[in-house]
Amino acid sequence: xxxxxxKIVGLMKSENLFESQGGPIILSQIENEYGSQSKLLGAxxxxxxxxxxxxxxxxxxxxPWVMCKEEDAPDPxxxxxxxxxxxxxxxxxxxxxxxxxxxxxxxxTEFGGPIxxxxxxxxxxxxxxxxQKGGSFVNYxxxxxxxxxxxxxxxxxxxxxxxxxxxIDEYGLIRQPKYGHLKxxxxxxxxxxxxxxxxxxxxxxxxxxxxxxxxxxESGDCAAFLANYDTKSAARVLFNNMHYSLPPWSISILPxxxxxxxxxxxVGVQTSQMEMLPANDEMLSWESYDEDISSLxxxxxxxALGLLEQINVTRDASDYLWYITSxxxxxxxxxxxxxxxxxxxxxxxxxxxxxxxxxxxxxxxFGTRENKRFTYTGxxxxxxxxxxxxxxxxxxxxxxVGGHFETWNTGxxxxxxxxxxxxxxxxxxxxxxxxxxxxxxxxxxxxxPNSVSSVGWMEASLIAKRQQPLTWHxxxxxxxxxxxxxxxDMEGMGKGQIWINGQSIGRYWTxxxxxxxxxxxxxxxxxxxxxxxxxxxxxxxxxxxxRSWLKPTQNLLxxxxxxxxxxxxxxxxxxxxxxxCADVSEFHPTIKNWQIESYGRAEEFHSxxxxxxxxxxxxxxxxxxxxxxTPLGTCGSYQQGPCHAPASYNIVEKKCIGKQxxxxxxxxxxxxxxxxxxxxxRLSVEAVxxxxx
Length: 693
Prior knowledge:
Layout: H1 2-14, E1 28-29, H2 35-41, H3 43-58, E2 65-68, E3 78-83, E4 99-104, E5 115-116, H4 120-132, E6 137-141, E7 154-155, H5 178-191, H6 193-198, E8 202-205, E9 210-216, E10 222-228, E11 235-239, E12 242-246, E13 250-254, E14 262-263, E15 271-278, E16 287-290, E17 301-305, H7 310-314, E18 320-329, E19 343-348, E20 352-357, E21 360-366, E22 374-379, E23 385-394, E24 398-399, E25 416-421, E26 424-427, E27 432-437, H8 440-443, E28 458-459, H9 460-464, E29 471-477, E30 486-489, E31 495-500, E32 503-509, E33 532-533, E34 542-545, E35 555-561, E36 571-585, E37 609-613, E38 618-629, H10 648-656, E39 661-665, E40 682-691
Parallel strand pairs: 1-2, 2-3, 3-4, 4-6, 7-24
Antiparallel strand pairs: 5-33, 8-9, 9-10, 10-13, 11-12, 13-14, 15-36, 16-28, 16-29, 17-27, 18-23, 18-27, 19-22, 19-25, 20-21, 20-23, 25-26, 29-35, 30-34, 30-36, 31-32, 31-35, 36-40, 37-39, 38-40
């Protein structure tokens, strides 16, 4: 631990990266969420934690050290908070700043589970709650999650995508409205900075579930946060002799204690609709090679009595470990003469297993992140004489949290038994087993452009009919034009791994998602079970393929498929913005409505604006929907309401068609006349983005 820490700190110092050297690093963290582990270990845990803290201090970075989820972090280390909300957190000493090291923007995805979304209204509410109570610093986990390339996904069972519903998505593109709404939140908080850092807040009750936090300094700075914690109802509150409307579960920010520049529940920025569009680049002909499971390379196998733990054997050199044994069946067994077939039962500690009997796939079974252990039960077609039973155990990521990793098991630890023979049950667990780490194709490095031709590949059209398990597939393709991020659509495949030009994109598994995908309200405490998407679809269908890994032509794609699948259905797609939406009311709070010079005096009201922007290289080709009045629905399904300004489409088309970005002011005068006096109106727009010719 000491060697590692000093190595990293030394690298940072050698490039003058710490703030004390004029660099950008303002905080360092030692350990990660060790607190729960420390408690379980008692005195030894506490001793290690204090040793780690003091060791870090000794490195002399010149910037503060923090420990997250570590209540007893010793001075001068600052203990910090991680979570969906941190407004109830206080550090262990009053002179330490209140720091939120991980504000969770979403949640990770597991194979077979749904996609988790965290509404930006709730995330903004959580951050505003933290700041209004005196929080000093917020860091998002994740701001950009990215991709678990290779076999780096932890978990186990964590997907290759680590998108996390973050403000910048897995592909490096801005996710709207999350990115823009948080940007406006940060700007609004920044406007309150002088008041926030000069004093502690005075808290006043404005109603049963409503509060004001007011920061008022001697020099005349004043900032206020008006909060409504009610999850169902909006509230109208009186503050400083003025009335304010607060949506449910929201906070309004008033940098001058008078004008609202931001409300966490009122999203004024656009929503961008992203789609995976065909890249129109053909995969050049597919060829396939069957993993040879009949002959074993004696130089790479060993035998042992009984069943061994997988990671101890593989040392994580491969996800795959063969467990092979044989059984002799007498010719007089009843099942050979019209009786019922025997049953094979295999108990595994994780994570997946494929059962082969005499070289034929007999069945497969899988665990889940919650239940890594599972049991395979299936009829087996044995013959008289010697039968070879080969179990391919597959790991899906290493354990990534908890203590005593040496006690965590993976692989087939038994029992393995045959039931339904004339003798009754035959336990195979303690007989002689032969082990082989990894696949033949891995040993021959079939994924590398240099050694891909070391075996005889067959044309895939001959193979596609068979849906053969344990098959390597390869094809060549040219890099698609344009600069949109790329992905592989793996919908036609089952489970395995992907390589591009010898580099691993990661594990794929088109397991279907089960969950609870019936709607999502931003209001109320967020938890991962709350806002789920994608039930009944593959958890991960698309796999990110960085353009930087590609050559202009002749890129080698290699896929190893465990279950069977049709490689001709694999296709290249581009992640593209297809449409943008906005939905803003005529009294939407804007930063323009507060200038420091006009402090305390009402000035002319600045009408809010709708801003629409397509990706670079795109322009707005058509307006799918436009209505100033009382439109209904959400992005992708807007409808006209009872009140609608007839000029809506004309005005929006004139401002936006043919442009990459456009702005429309929300005011009666802009739309010809007031379509419905004394009614709160909004402008809803959906515009189509298309490549600029």
